[in-house]
Amino acid sequence: MLLYNGQPIQAIVLDIEGTTTDIAFVKTVLFPYAEERLEAFMTALAPTREGHAILAMVRTEVGNPTLPLEECIAQLLAWAKADQKVTPLKAVQGMIWDEGYRSKAYYSHIYEDAAAYLWDWHRQGMPLYVYSSGSIAAQKLLFTHTLVGDLTPCFQGYFDTTTGAKVNTASYTKIAGAVGRPAAELLFLSDHPGELAAACQAGWQVCAVQRPGTPDFPPELPVVSTLGNYP
Ligand SMILES: [Mg+2]
User: Fold this and answer.
1) 2-21+108-224: CATH homologous superfamily?
2) 190 CA to middle of ligand 1, Å?
3) How many angstroms is it from 193 CA to the middle of ligand 1?
4) Ligand 1 centre from 42 Cα, in Å?
5) How would residue 7 be classed by pLDDT, with cut points 50, 70 and 90?
6) Which of 21, 92, 113, 144 has the maximum number of C-beta atoms within 10 A of its C-beta?
7) 170-205: per-residue pLDDT in tens?
8) Residue 231 has what pLDDT?
9) What is the mean predicted confidence (pLDDT) over 125-149?
10) Whether the model pTM is above 0.85
11) pLDDT for 209-227, tens place per residue?
12) Mean pLDDT to the nearest integer, 48-71
C-alpha cells in the first residue's frame, strides 16, 4: 500500500509534460513535426469524410461557413503557431502525429524513473490515470509509442481539458467522481504549481515533480525529483 502524508493512496493521476515526459519532446519534436506537414496533409485530406469534418469545424470556429480551403489551412497554421488548443487543430495534429509514430519518425520521451514506477505501481494493482492538456487521443499515442515500449497497459483512464482546465478545482472534483474515489485518497503528480494548487483545493493529495529545467516550486509544496521518492 502506498502511504502519502499518512494517507493510503488508492489511485494516482499524472500530468505528462514535465512530469512523465520531457517538455522538449512535445515542443521540439511533436509540434514542429505537425506544423511542417499540416498544409500538405490537410490538402490531401480535404476531399475525404474526415477532411470535410475538420474543415466544417474550422469554418464554425471562425464563423464563416464558406471559408475557402486555403484559408482554412492558413487558419489551422495560425492556430498551430500560436499554440492554440482549438478542436479542429487538435484533430489534425493527432492524425499527423499518429502517422509520425507509425512510421517511427520519433518515439515519445519518458523519464526512466517514470516508466519504472508506472510499471511497479501497475503490478501492485494501483489504478493510474493521466490528466493532460493534450487530447486523449494524443495521450494514448504518446504512451503507446515510447522509447521503452507501450505503457498504455499501466493506465485505467485518461482525462483532458474536455473535463475542464487543469488549473480549475472543479476539474479535480469531476475526475475524483469519474475515478470513483474520495479526493483524499487520490494523489496528483505534476510540475505545475497552479494545477497542484487546484487539486489541493479539491481535497487531493498532491506532490510536485522537479525535472531538469523546472522552475522552483513554492516552499509549501512537497517536491520529488523521481516519481515515487516521496518526502
Ligand atoms: Mg506539466
Assistant:
1) HAD superfamily/HAD-like (3.40.50.1000)
2) 6
3) 9
4) 29
5) confident
6) 92
7) 999 999 999 999 999 999 999 999 999 999 999 999
8) 64
9) 96
10) yes
11) 999 989 889 998 999 999 9
12) 97
**Mean of the pLDDT values across residues 63-86?**
96
CA–centroid distance, 43 to ligand 1, in Å, is 33
HEC states along the chain? CEEECCEEECEEEECCECCCECHHHHHHHHHHHHHHHHHHHHHHHCCCHHHHHHHHHHHHHHCCCCCCHHHHHHHHHHHHHCCCCCHHHHHHHHHHHHHHHHCCCCCECCCHHHHHHHHHHHHCCCCEEEECCCCHHHHHHHHHCECCECCHHHCCEEECCCCCCCCCHHHHHHHHHHHCCCHHHEEEEECCHHHHHHHHHCCCEEEEECCCCCCCCCCCCCEECCCCCCC
Cα of 120 from ligand 1 centre, angstroms: 22
Q: Average pLDDT over the chain, rounded to whole? A: 95
60 CA to centre of ligand 1 in angstroms: 30
Tell me, in angstroms, the distance from the centre of ligand 1 to residue 168's CA.
Answer: 15
**What whole-number distance in Å separates Cα of residue 142 and Cα of residue 86?**
19
| Ligand 1 center–CA 195 separation, angstroms | 9
Domain-wise residue ranges, the chain: 2-21+108-224, 27-102
Domain 27-102 has CATH 3.40.50.620: no
C-alpha of residue 51 to centroid of ligand 1, in Å: 31
